[in-house]
């Protein structure tokens, strides 16, 4: 696991303005990672030492299908999927669904929140980063907790999926109410943990996660 200070230094460095470039190549001894900034709707290719190699605009998830937040890695690479996936596909290991970084046949939508949670890029842009990305390359996705700047929270119910469910599971686990996997799926085990949490904390026992529960968990204010 990358040291926390290294990650924080890396994220701070990435907020500096970066021009879109493609000619610069990473040093052979330096691995690369992908950093996605949802606020700026941009993807950065950079070395593990913090050197930014390129920056490209993206189209992340729409308000009803927000993008995941967190630290993941590339688990699939494919060329010429066709259709809406464009010329390249980089699949990432999001636990609750199929998400990836891919090209598009609608380049005019780049820079807008329009996808089903994936990260769309212009075909010529993803083709530039594709050769530098390997299976296992880290993908850091940073942005609003809900994956979209217009979302503040959602009511979570059995069957809900996403970054917020994963965060709730993590907080319930830390408090001793949840013993399952932190995988972002509101399954039966998570529901039982929510019941225990609400009873134990004197909250309305609904089996759902509402705003009051999120406040009590310290996730929102």
TrEMBL record:
GO terms for biological process: cell wall organization; peptidoglycan-protein cross-linking; regulation of cell shape. GO terms for cellular component: extracellular region. Pathway: Cell wall biogenesis; peptidoglycan biosynthesis. Keywords: Cell shape, Cell wall biogenesis/degradation, Glycosyltransferase, Hydrolase, Peptidoglycan synthesis, Signal, Transferase. The active site is at 102 (proton donor/acceptor), 118 (nucleophile). Residues 1-23 form the signal peptide. It comes from the Bacteria. SUPFAM superfamilies: L,D-transpeptidase catalytic domain-like (SSF141523), PGBD-like (SSF47090). One of its GO terms (molecular function) is peptidoglycan L,D-transpeptidase activity. Residues 32-142 form the L,D-TPase catalytic domain. Belongs to the YkuD family. This is L,D-transpeptidase family protein. It comes from Brevibacillus aydinogluensis.
């Amino acid at each position: 696991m990358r040291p926390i200070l290294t990650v924080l230094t890396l994220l701070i460095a990435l907020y500096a303005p970066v021009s879109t470039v493609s000619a610069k190549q990473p040093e052979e001894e330096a691995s690369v990672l992908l950093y996605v900034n949802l606020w700026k709707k941009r993807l950065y290719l950079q070395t593990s030492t913090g050197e930014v190699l390129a920056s490209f605009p993206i189209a992340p998830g729409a308000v009803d299908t927000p993008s995941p937040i967190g630290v993941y890695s590339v688990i699939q690479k494919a060329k010429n999927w066709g259709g809406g996936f464009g010329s390249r596909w980089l699949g990432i290991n999001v636990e609750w669904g199929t998400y990836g970084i891919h090209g598009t046949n609608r380049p005019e939508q780049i820079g807008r929140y329009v996808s089903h949670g994936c990260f769309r890029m212009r075909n010529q842009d993803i083709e530039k980063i594709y050769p530098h990305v390997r299976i296992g390359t880290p993908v850091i996705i940073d942005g609003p907790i809900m994956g979209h700047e217009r979302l503040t929270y959602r009511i979570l119910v059995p069957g809900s999926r996403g970054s917020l469910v994963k965060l709730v599971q993590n907080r319930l686990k830390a408090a001793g109410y949840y013993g399952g996997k932190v995988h972002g799926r509101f399954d039966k085990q998570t529901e039982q943990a929510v019941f225990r949490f609400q009873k134990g904390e004197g909250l309305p026992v609904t089996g759902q996660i509402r705003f009051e529960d999120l406040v009590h968990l310290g996730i929102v204010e």
